[in-house]
Structure to design on (372 residues):
């Protein structure tokens, strides 16, 4: 196996310490065994190269004596190879550059402590969030249907869901009502326990959530007889929710803390997907509702009034004389109950008769003679 450390990091022998650091960071992200496509052996090789070339003394010895330079340190408390990781230490492993952005070969790379957790998560018990007990229950989702008229005005609905709800006897802490909590004997009230894990850098000590008290540090002296200490009960709940006017079909509403409850934590949220049933007469475009209205030919010529059904009941609509086919009339403030309230647009369609009585035909002929 080649021991050319400069070659392993892809740098020249005259590379600066900053160039060495940047080269290592790039290769570490690529080959770390916890990453998809990572290679444990290559990662060890580049780390060995970095540990040597990032240290001025080791680098000078390496440049003078080659790959066997470390033998010259025998008996002096130094180790070569994989950075000298012993016990819980990292053997001088330099993490500082992971908080710096750098540029290499035209590509920008940004690192922060989140990247460090992702790359070296196994050293700390699994990475970000591993030592944090989930404090929120799962979210739930339901679907409801409302009518077009309910969409226009808004509506209150009752929704029945089945979920894990907080126990109404112990208020969700799992203890029998009136009894006390006591210190957890497993973690001595700390809520966490120490664990020692073996890694490629040696043994690493980390902390994990105590499984006995689930991170609380206390346990019930006597478990709740209703939920048997679980803190939650599976039951049917009825949720009252207001569906606002103007909601679009497919939109979601969120009701906080009405999802699955969790012991000593916060309940998840309930998401309500709303479907609006189409109306036979009225249609919607954005926040405007409209309908087509057929009127007789004489009304389009002479004007008049016609009663139409709206969401406020039956109302009279004034038709101006001489209105053209396809023209739009507006009923202001009679549409969606927003603030300000929307309008209804009425699209006029003039009904042209296909058959005329003898008398009607004579009248039309007279109109024709008059130039109309």
């Amino acid at each position: 196996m080649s021991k050319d450390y400069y070659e392993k990091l892809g740098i020249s022998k005259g590379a600066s310490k900053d160039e060495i650091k940047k080269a290592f960071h790039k290769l570490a992200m690529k080959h770390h065994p916890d990453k998809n496509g990572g290679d444990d052996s290559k990662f060890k090789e580049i780390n060995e190269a970095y540990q040597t070339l990032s240290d001025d003394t080791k680098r000078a010895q390496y440049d003078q004596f080659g790959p066997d330079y470390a033998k010259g340190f025998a008996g002096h408390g130094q180790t070569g190879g994989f950075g000298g990781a012993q016990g819980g230490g990292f053997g001088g492993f330099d993490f500082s550059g992971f908080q710096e952005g750098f540029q290499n070969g035209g590509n920008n790379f940004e690192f922060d402590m989140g990247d460090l957790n992702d790359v070296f998560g196994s050293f700390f018990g699994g990475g970000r969030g591993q030592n944090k007990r989930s404090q929120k229950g799962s979210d739930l989702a339901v679907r409801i249907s409302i009518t077009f008229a309910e969409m226009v005005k808004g509506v209150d609905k009752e929704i029945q869901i089945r979920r894990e709800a907080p126990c109404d006897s112990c208020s969700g802490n799992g203890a029998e009502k009136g009894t006390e909590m006591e210190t957890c004997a497993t973690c001595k009230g700390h809520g966490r326990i120490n664990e020692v894990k073996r890694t490629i850098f040696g043994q690493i000590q980390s902390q994990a959530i105590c499984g006995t008290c689930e991170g609380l540090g206390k346990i019930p002296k006597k478990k709740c007889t209703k939920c048997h200490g679980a803190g939650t009960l599976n039951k049917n709940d009825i949720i009252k929710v207001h569906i606002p006017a103007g909601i679009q079909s497919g939109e979601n509403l969120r009701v906080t803390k009405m999802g699955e409850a969790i012991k000593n934590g916060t309940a998840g949220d309930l998401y309500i997907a709303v479907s609006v049933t189409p109306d036979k007469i009225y249609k919607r475009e954005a926040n405007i509702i409209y309908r087509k209205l057929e009127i007789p030919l004489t009304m389009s010529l002479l004007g008049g009034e016609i009663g139409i059904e709206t969401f406020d009941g039956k109302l009279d609509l004034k038709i101006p004389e001489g209105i053209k086919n396809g023209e739009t009339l507006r009923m202001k403030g009679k549409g969606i109950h927003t603030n300000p309230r929307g309008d209804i647009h009425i699209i006029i369609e003039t009904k042209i008769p296909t058959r005329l009585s003898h008398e009607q035909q004579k009248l039309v002929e007279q109109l024709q003679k008059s130039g109309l």
Q: What stands out?
A: Residues 147 and 277 are 5 Å apart (CA to CA). The domain at 140-276 is CATH 2.10.230.10 (Chaperone, DNAj Protein; Chain A). The first strand starts at residue 102 and ends at 104. DSSP finds eight helices and 17 strands in the chain.
